[in-house]
């Protein structure tokens, strides 16, 4: 089976980017090991602190963030980091060529129930003018990403990644420690009968999503004339993995609760990397008003509405916004 290195070379990734990705994944392998030890290693449960988003941090959020931060800072390839678990940009090496944004442990509430969790990352060029502690360099649209992906810590540890030449999925061979290409050039089916949304927020959704979901629920008796199934992992990384494997539509839409929070998911280290993976696999990713990868960020922890997945179904959903 092909190794990650050869696939990245075949896709034309520059050497320094390959080395950076390998460094990042070394950190993810360590997270995978810590996660698999669970209660035996005392890594489950919450800390007493909150992150900048006001969410209580799990011990594994803090451990995973530290592992990635340490390994990337030491590497010399990275100029600065932005992380869900860091209030501000973390300066790294002044000559680093890249910026890395990550959610070190997405879906961390799932740690308590031994369910799916993962690390999500995106990589962009560091502008030469930037000082390593300057957040302005991170305010580039997602279309500027040079690589993005996630590592899913599930029954197998899997990596989904793109460097802009298709989306490939690899499985960690824990006997040798390498990621092997198990699902090359993923193509998301254009049609689907499966949707994902946190229905407990229904009363807050904006009207187009209310109308769209009502039509899905009406099944064969409604205007869509087919029955839909619903799935919700409560970790975006798990839901997007299912979409890449067999199609579907995932929504975390704009809701009316707090005008300061247009959606729950963060642009730089959740929405953008998943949008890049999805588009490279033939799917679509929108905020409802436009392509996610064209949103110009205003701050590093910015949130956006997310509608992502199988092409025809996302288009059907977007038609409710017209
Ligand atoms: P964390 O990164 O804080 O663990 O949050 C996970 C997440 O942002 C995303 O992965 C899920 O889709 C979403 O939250 C689920 O949240 P709710 O179940 O509260 O809607």
Automatic annotation (TrEMBL):
What is written in the cofactor note of this entry? Binds 2 magnesium ions per subunit.
Subcellular location, in the record's words? Cytoplasm
Q: Where does substrate bind?
A: 106-109, 198, 264
Instruction: Output the CDD domains linked to this UniProt entry.
Output: FBPase
Q: Which GO terms describe its molecular function?
A: fructose 1,6-bisphosphate 1-phosphatase activity; magnesium ion binding
Q: Which cofactor does it need?
A: Mg(2+)
Query: What EC numbers are recorded for this enzyme?
Result: 3.1.3.11
SUPFAM superfamilies for the chain = Carbohydrate phosphatase
Subunit structure, interactors included: Homotetramer.
PANTHER family, per the entry: FRUCTOSE-1,6-BISPHOSPHATASE-RELATED, SEDOHEPTULOSE-1,7-BISPHOSPHATASE, CHLOROPLASTIC
Q: What is this protein called?
A: Fructose-1,6-bisphosphatase class 1
- Where does this protein come from, organism-wise? Alteromonas alba
């Amino acid at each position: 089976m092909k190794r990650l290195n050869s696939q990245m070379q075949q896709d034309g990734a520059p050497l320094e980017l390959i080395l950076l990705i390998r460094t990042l994944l070394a950190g993810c392998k360590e997270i995978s090991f810590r996660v698999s030890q669970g209660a035996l290693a005392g890594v489950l449960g919450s800390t007493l602190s909150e992150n900048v988003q006001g969410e209580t941090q799990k011990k594994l959020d803090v451990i995973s963030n530290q592992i990635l931060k340490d390994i990337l800072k030491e590497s010399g390839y990275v100029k600065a980091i932005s992380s869900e678990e860091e209030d501000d940009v973390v300066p790294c090496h002044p000559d680093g060529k890249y910026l890395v944004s990550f959610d070190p442990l997405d879906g961390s509430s799932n740690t308590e129930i031994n369910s799916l969790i993962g690390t999500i990352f995106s990589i962009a060029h560091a502008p030469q003018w930037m000082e390593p502690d300057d957040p302005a360099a991170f305010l580039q649209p997602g279309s500027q990403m040079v690589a993005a992906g996630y590592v899913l810590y599930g029954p197998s540890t899997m990596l989904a990644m793109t460097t802009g030449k298709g989306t490939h999925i690899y499985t960690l061979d824990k006997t040798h420690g390498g990621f092997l290409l198990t699902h090359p050039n993923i193509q998301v089916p254009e049609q689907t009968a499966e949707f994902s949304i946190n229905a407990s927020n229904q009363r807050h959704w904006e009207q187009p999503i209310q109308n769209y979901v009502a039509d899905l629920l009406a099944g064969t008796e409604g205007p869509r004339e087919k029955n839909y199934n619903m799935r919700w992992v409560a970790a975006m990384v798990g839901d997007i993995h299912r979409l890449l494997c067999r199609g579907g539509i995932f929504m975390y839409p704009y809701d009316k609760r707090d005008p300061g929070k247009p959606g729950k998911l963060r642009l730089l280290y959740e929405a953008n990397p998943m949008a890049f993976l999805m588009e490279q696999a033939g799917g679509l990713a929108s905020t409802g008003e436009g392509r996610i990868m064209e949103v110009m960020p205003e701050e590093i922890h910015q949130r956006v509405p997310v509608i992502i997945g199988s092409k025809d179904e996302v288009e059907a959903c977007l038609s409710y916004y017209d």
